[in-house]
Amino acid sequence: MSVLPTAAGGVVNAVRWKTAPFTGHQLRYAVTGSGPAVVLPKKDRGSYVPFERLADQYTMVQIEPLGFGRSDRPDPYPAVGIHEQILSICDQEDIPEFAVWGFSQGGAMACATAQATPRARLMVCGGFNVLRGLSDAWLARMNRERRIPVGSRTFWNWFHSYDWHAELRQMAIPKLMYWGTLGAQRVSLKDQYILRGLGIEVAEFAGLDHGRCGLGDPASPATDLVADWLQRHGWGS
Fold it and tell me: Which of 7, 98, 111, 215 maximizes the CB count within 10 A of its CB?
């Protein structure tokens, strides 16, 4: 186990890398910190910046769903949702409720989780325009060519089956979406108006592309933005 320094030079809880059984497979995840839980659906290896920086305020949980990171990569993929995998780990960690925060495809996973379970009490989606999602043509090509790993294919087919305008309207929890003005997933002014009408707070970072808004960039302003937003909505110690 390793110990993380805080921004103030203190020490937070040791990082605990763990596995959890799920439908006969193994999920990989990491936990650190204390306080209200913030769950980060994670499709890449390594630690996210907020996981390290916010552990003095929150119980931070990075979860690598099946088919991603160091979790098992079953093929065929089990007929389950991302939220079921997240809830199984929260149950193992005795986490009754949580904020869920993802970026890019992880942002779509955060939306899917918040849509599926009332245990998600706040939702943050960065770098993904949920209203537009993926085109029918892109999805058809993905399924035809099968170049994308089965975990991603399974998730995107599931995500694409929903009307997210309707789903977001029904999600009566605090919601935040953000992006960079130079990112491919930048949300148009029209869509920003629609999102606000659905009760979603929006933020954009001028001059930043997709990568520089990501959870792996130490210089991204998103960490501070989201931390402040969580506190304003009562999710903090």
Answer: 111
